[in-house]
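anyone else get weird line breaks when pasting these?? whatever heres mine. first is seq + tokens for prot A
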Amino acid sequence: MCSHIFNERNRSFSGREVIMINTDAEGIVVDRPNRFLCIVNITKPVTMESEMVHVHDPGRLEDILYPGNRVLLKRAAEGKRKTKWDLIAGDIMGEWVLVNSSWHRKISEWVIQNKIIPFLNGIDTVIPEKKFGDSRLDFLLMEKEKSIWVEVKGCTLARGSVALFPDAPTIRGRRHLEELIKARNEGHEAVVLILVFRQEAESFSANKVIDPDFALTFSKAIDAGVKVFPLCFSYEENTIHFRSLLPVFQKS
């Protein structure tokens, strides 16, 4: 049995600019020796071979960071680093997909501040990186006497029109869901913001194939009253654009 769960009315805000993320170079992936490092041959604006690039995303990214695929890079700030470049985006079917999780905070803050989700419209206090239980969750939002615990996840994988998270087993992600369930049981509100960077996505689902434990906990979280809001974004001309709020698709 399949069902679509709409936590809010699906509304389209296609084309709304969120933030600019400028890049300095384009290149071709040569290898990914570990999850935090990619070897890239830079092709634009100049040619540079075998540059080490920092990957700020712990996922597998197998359909993005494979040899021969195009990527966008940003020159790293001066400092004590082994790499001079940061990976920003990769090419999927001619579209750029953001693969740098260091921007998730700013994007999610934009969502909250611009009242994209009606459920969060009455917020008057935003506290980032607040500890709850044994985890540090991304936000604690306050609305008069109500507290809302928020965790943010970035999604770069899609199969057909379905965005999927995670793209690699995540014990940490499952633990965050368990903390949100605990928050609900203690009388708080709890929210998961899924930042989907695959603009072909029309719905979102937990990735049962990659991480069945996460998918099971995801279903338990929904049953406990944790609200899930998948938001679809595109990355065009150095700018993140908000496209739409997606439904959650569950198989039962």
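and prot B, same format (seq, then tokens)
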Amino acid sequence: MCGAPKQGQHLPAGVDAEKETVLTGQVLDDEGAAVGGAFVRLLDGGGEFTAEVVASGSGDFRFFAAPGTWTLRALSRSGNGDITVSPDGPGVHEYNVVVKKD
């Protein structure tokens, strides 16, 4: 079992969204249904692994990052997918990652 903290759209108490850059969202299949239990990886601008969480049962995930270019990659039984994002500053930035069977 992974020791990742519970994921979801609500930020933990004490997180100041005006100072933190938060990447959050949901893993979805190609029909728009939530994909729970997906492994969601955060890769830096050069494609290097930075962090990984397990999406909640409703497909939610969250990372704390810095402004810049990142790739969010989801790996699941329903398929894989990724999205490149570029949050430009602090705040909550929402992105969905769509997974598809190859």
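btw re prot B: The beta strands are 21-29, 39-43, 49-54, 60-65, 70-76, 79-85, 91-99. The chain has no helices and seven strands.
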